[in-house]
Specification:
The complex is a heterodimer of chains A (about 270) and B (about 350). Chain A is α/β, with parallel strands linked by helices and about 270 residues long. Chain A is built from nine helices and 14 strands. The radius of gyration of chain A is 19 Å and the shape is globular. Chain B is built from 15 helices and two strands. In chain B, strands 1-2 form a two-stranded antiparallel ribbon. The chains are: A alpha/beta (about 270), B mainly alpha (about 350). At the A-B interface, helix 2, helix 3 and helix 4 of A face helix 10 and helix 11 of B. The complex binds adenosine-5'-triphosphate and magnesium ion. Magnesium ion binds next to helix 1 of chain A.
Chain lengths: ~270, ~350
C-alpha cells in the first residue's frame, strides 16, 4: 500500500500541489493523468522523496522520510520524465548501475533479463549515448525494472513509479512497456504511472487519478473517472468518451471537429 | 524475443578493468625500480643489491643516495601521482564532466595559496598552534585552501544537481586568478628566509623529497585514496544525475561531501609537498576510461596505480633528460599532458554538453 496524506508542495513561493490525498494498491496499475503543469511529476517526486513537501507518504506502512535512501531504493524504483548520463557507459552498464553490485552472475543475469524484457538484449554492449531517444527510454526502464526485479520480496510488495514511461515510444513498444507494467502489478507489485495517452490509460489502468491545478479532481476506477464531464473539466476542452459495443472495434483518433475520443472497450 | 544465450557479452569491460589492476601493478613496480636505479650520481642499484646479497656493507655514498634521496623521492612520487589522478577522477565524477581537474579549475591554486599563507604567515600564528601542527602546518593549510575553493566552485557551477561546464571552467579561472593574486601579495611581503622556502616549494618538483615530507603527505594521501575507493558506486550513480542517484539508494549529500573532502585532502597534500604538477588528474582518468570504461569502482583503483606510475616516469625523464641538471617535473607533465588534453577537447567538440 502506498498512501500520501495531505501533500502540499511549494516551489519558489508557488503552491504546486495543495492538500493532495492519494493512494495506490499493490497488485494494480494506478495512473495519474492531467494536463501539462497540473502537478503530476511533482506528485511523483513527492512520492519518491525528491522534493520537500508537507504531509506524509507511507510506503508499505513506513513514513518515507524515516527511511534511508538505500532502504527506499530496495522497495521502489523511479523512472524520471527525462534522464541524462555523463560518461560513455554501455547499455548493460547503465542497467547495472541501479543494482547493489554488478559483478556476480546473478545480478548480471537480472540486468540481461531486464534488457531482454524491453526488447534490447542485442544492444547490451553499445554506448548508451548513441541510442535513439526511444531506445534510451527503454534502457532506463530496464534499469528501473532490474532495481526491483522481484515484484514481491519477502512478502513486501515493491513499487514502480513511472513518469510518462511511453512518452517517446512507438505504438508497438507502448503496448510492450504497458504490458510489462501490468505483469509487474499482477505478480503482486505496485505500479504508479503518469500518463498522457488516455486510450492507453483506459486500456491498462486499474485506477485513475485526475490532477488539475495541483489538486486531485477524481480518483477511482477508469469507468468512474473517465467521463466526458470529468475529463472535459480537467483538460479544459471538450472530450468525448466512446464506449463501442462489445464486439465493436475501437477507434483511437480524435475527431476532426476537435473532439478527443477515448476508447473504453477495456472497461 | 531473443534467447539470452544468443547474446554474447562480447567485451565485458568490468573484467578488462579488473585485469588492468594487475597490469598496472606490474607497471608501477617496474617504474619504481627504474626510479630507484636512475639518478645523477651514477650510484648503481644493482651494484648495491649485489653487495647486500653477498653480505658486503654499502658505502656511505650508496646509503645516502639510495636511502636518503631516491627512496623518499620514490615514495613521494607514488603518493603525489596517485593523489593527483584520484583527485582528478573523483572531481570529474562529482562534476559529471571529464574536464574537471583540480589543477584546471583553481583547486590546486587554492591549495597553493593555503601553503604559501602557511609559509609566510605561519610565524605570526600563536607559537602553540605552530608547534602543534609542526610539519603538518603547510599540508593542513593547503587542504583548507583546496577545500574552500572546491566548495565555492561547486556552489557556483552546480544548480539543482546539474553542473554547467562553462560556468565551472570560468569560475575555475576566476578562482585561480584570485588565488594567484593573493599568493603574489604574500610573496611580496615575505622576508628573505620565507622567500627561499617559497622558491623551493614552488618549483613543482619532487627534488626536495625527504622522509619528513613523506611522513606528512603519505598518510593524508593514503587516507583520502582509501576514502575515494568507497565512492565508486556513488559516482556511477551520480552519472545518471543527482535525482536518479537518490532513487537507486545513494546518500547523495553525504557522498558529495566526502568527494569534496577527498579532492581537497589529496590535492592539498600533493600541492603542499610538490607544488603544482598539472595534467596527471585529467590525462590518467581519461586514458583509463578509453581502455576499460567509466565504471568508477575500477577506475579509481586503476587511476591511483597509473597516476603513480606516470608521475614516476615523468620524474625519471625530468632527471635524465638534461642530466646532470634537472627539469622541473611540472614542465614534463605539461609537455606530455597538454597535447592529450587538447586531443580530448577535439574529440568532444561535437558533443552537446561542451
Ligand atoms: N522547480 C520548480 N520551481 C518552480 N515551479 C516549478 C518547479 N517544477 C515545477 N514547477 C511548476 O509546477 C507545476 C507542475 O509541474 P509538473 O512538472 O508537476 O507538471 P506535470 O503535470 O508533470 O506536467 P507535464 O505534463 O508537462 O509533465 C508547473 O506549473 C511548473 O511550472
Ligand atoms: Mg511531468
Amino acid at each position: 500500500m502506498l498512501i500520501a496524506n495531505d501533500i502540499t508542495v511549494q516551489l519558489g513561493h508557488r503552491t504546486i500541489l495543495s492538500n493532495v490525498n492519494f493512494n495506490a494498491q499493490p497488485g494494480t496499475v494506478t495512473a495519474i493523468v492531467g494536463p501539462n503543469g497540473s502537478g503530476k511529476t511533482t506528485l511523483l517526486r513527492a512520492l519518491s522523496g525528491d522534493v520537500d513537501y508537507s504531509g506524509q507518504v507511507l510506503l508499505n506502512g513506513c513514513d518515507t522520510r524515516q527511511l534511508k535512501s538505500w532502504e527506499l531504493a530496495a522497495e521502489r524504483a523511479v523512472l524520471p520524465q527525462a534522464s541524462t548520463l555523463a560518461f560513455p557507459f554501455t547499455v548493460i552498464e547503465v542497467v547495472r548501475i541501479g543494482l547493489q553490485s554488478g559483478t556476480s552472475g546473478e545480478t548480471d543475469s537480472v540486468a540481461m533479463q531486464a534488457l531482454n524484457l524491453v526488447g534490447l538484449p542485442h544492444y547490451a554492449n553499445r554506448f548508451f549515448q548513441e541510442l535513439s531517444g526511444g531506445e534510451q527510454q527503454r534502457v532506463q526502464l530496464a534499469r528501473v525494472l532490474a532495481q526491483v526485479w522481484d515484484p514481491v520480496l519477502d512478502g513486501t510488495p515493491r513499487w514502480l513509479l513511472l513518469d510518462e514511461p511511453v512518452a517517446s515510444l512507438d505504438i508497438g513498444h507502448q503496448l510492450q512497456i504497458m504490458d510489462i507494467a501490468r505483469n509487474f502489478a499482477h505478480a503482486g507489485g505496485g505500479v504508479i504511472t503518469v500518463m498522457h495517452d488516455l486510450n492507453l490509460t483506459a486500456l491498462y489502468a486499474d485506477s485513475v487519478a485526475v490532477l488539475a491545478h495541483g489538486s486531485v479532481l477524481a480518483h477511482d476506477s477508469p469507468m468512474q473517472v473517465m467521463t466526458d464531464a470529468i475529463l472535459s473539466k480537467a483538460y479544459e476542452c471538450s472530450v468525448k468518451v466512446n464506449t463501442p459495443p462489445p464486439s465493436g472495434f475501437t477507434y483511437l483518433l480524435p475527431h476532426s471537429a476537435g473532439l478527443a475520443t477515448v476508447s473504453q472497450d477495456s472497461l | 524475443m531473443v534467447s539470452l544465450s544468443d547474446v554474447p557479452l562480447t567485451k565485458d569491460r568490468f573484467q578488462t578493468a579488473r585485469a588492468a589492476h594487475l597490469w598496472l601493478v606490474l607497471l608501477l613496480v617496474s617504474v619504481s625500480v627504474t626510479s630507484l636505479a636512475v639518478g645523477a650520481s651514477g650510484t648503481s642499484l644493482w651494484g648495491a643489491f649485489a653487495k647486500i646479497l653477498s653480505g658486503q656493507s654499502l658505502s656511505q655514498m650508496e646509503k645516502v643516495v639510495l636511502w636518503d634521496i631516491r627512496a623518499p623521492r620514490l615514495l613521494l612520487g607514488i603518493s603525489v601521482g596517485a593523489a593527483l589522478a584520484v583527485a582528478g577522477a573523483v572531481m570529474q565524477g562529482l562534476f559529471r564532466n571529464p574536464l574537471a581537474d583540480p589543477g584546471l579549475v583553481g583547486v590546486s591554486a587554492g591549495a597553493g595559496l593555503g601553503a604559501i599563507s602557511a609559509i609566510v604567515l605561519g610565524s605570526t600564528l600563536p607559537i602553540g598552534i605552530v608547534a602543534l601542527a609542526g610539519n603538518a602546518l603547510i599540508p593542513v593549510a593547503a587542504f583548507f585552501g583546496g577545500w574552500l575553493s572546491t566548495i565555492v566552485l561547486y556552489r557556483v557551477a552546480t544548480r539543482g544537481g546539474r553542473t554547467s561546464v562553462a560556468t565551472m571552467l570560468l569560475a575555475g579561472i576566476a578562482l585561480g586568478a584570485l588565488a594567484g593574486a593573493l599568493s603574489g601579495i604574500l610573496v611580496y611581503i615575505a622576508d628573505d628566509r620565507q622567500l627561499r622556502d617559497l622558491t623551493f616549494w614552488g618549483l613543482g618538483s619532487l627534488a626536495g623529497a625527504t622522509w619528513g615530507k613523506v611522513a606528512v603527505a603519505a598518510p593524508i594521501i593514503l587516507l583520502s585514496i582509501l576514502g575515494a575507493f568507497t565512492l565508486g558506486r556513488g559516482l556511477n550513480g551520480l552519472a545518471l544525475g543527482e535525482v536518479t542517484a537518490h532513487h537507486i539508494g545513494i546518500p547523495v549529500q553525504r557522498m558529495k561531501n566526502l568527494s569534496i573532502l577527498v579532492v581537497a585532502a589529496a590535492t592539498g597534500a600533493a600541492v603542499a609537498v610538490s607544488g603544482g604538477i598539472g595534467f596527471i588528474g585529467i590525462v590518467v582518468p581519461h586514458l583509463l576510461r578509453l581502455w576499460t570504461g567509466p565504471d568508477h569502482r575500477t577506475l579509481l583503483i586503476n587511476a591511483a596505480l597509473l597516476g603513480a606510475s606516470l608521475l614516476l616516469l615523468a620524474d625519471v625523464i625530468s632527471r635524465v633528460i638534461i642530466a646532470p641538471a634537472e627539469l622541473p617535473i611540472g614542465i614534463v607533465t605539461a609537455v606530455l599532458g597538454a597535447p592529450v588534453f587538447l586531443w580530448i577537447l577535439l574529440r568532444r567538440r561535437g558533443m552537446v554538453d561542451l
